[in-house]
């Protein structure tokens, strides 16, 4: 039985690193799918485009690439800061080699994004911390609710015995605060209850959340939408994803005091590692606002329970949102770009459970 040898193109197309072939005039001659994902442009848009029109700024400049072309020397630089035409900034390792293709000298450029790997390591650590903190909160929740029920019952019995209205006000306060604390504990423990999953469109969930937000914020809130209409449905618990979106978008509106621009963007991402699983397709949902941003002192613990940068905030909204998304094997990230605060929700496109990285049938 003969086996078919894969072509070079097929092999390179499976790489997670961006690979480009560049002509002598520094126009792009060929790209692999990872390049399209990295630059956010299709192969048709990239071909014949000058390299400086795609990478507008880099530690490893276009002039250095041109020098490699003239000298024929291989060049490699680690942790290069790159700014793309859409002003997205990332860190990458860049390798440049001079090659001869079809009788012409060209450059083979490989770009491996490294800050994503760094974030994955941080996310793994943060995820473990989040689980530990959530377990602690759940344990405290059980310890709090038991005496809280007794306290409320005692206040009710005392209120029945009191005849002085002024004294009854004190028992009313006790009952009211006990109910508030009980509801707070319930909110901390709710995400750990699994919901029923079904096929749902992410844009439908976003619009449901927007209908709630616009009722609260009024006409002073501007909404900008940049949706990808080709996104497939997700197999998720719609109510939980909607709640996670609502928590993040409410935070954004509150940060802008109800006056500003909320930008919503959806895209598809290919071959992304979430946790210990590589997913062939992941949906990305960006929520951006032009508020003051996240206080620097809480950026590293933003998704931890009971951490808030807003006066009077409970610190539960983002922690609950992260828990809900992680239950769907997804992830929420935070970053500041061009004076705009952005929270990104990643959700894998799955119909059934995907194999883990350790299983060769489900990994790349």
Provide a descriptive summary of the structure in words.
With 364 residues, this protein is α+β, with helices and mostly antiparallel strands. The protein folds into 3 domains: 8-113, PAS domain (Beta-Lactamase, 2-Layer Sandwich), CATH 3.30.450; 118-191; 195-362, Heat Shock Protein 90. It is 40% helix and 28% strand. It is built from 10 helices and 13 strands. The strands form 3 sheets. Strands 2-1-6-5-4-3 form a 6-stranded antiparallel sheet. It has a 5-stranded mixed sheet with strand order 8-10-11-13-12. It has a two-stranded antiparallel ribbon with strand order 7-9. Strand 4 (75-84) and strand 5 (89-101) form a beta hairpin. It is elongated, with a radius of gyration of 26 Å. Mean pLDDT is 76; it is low at 1-5 and 353-364.
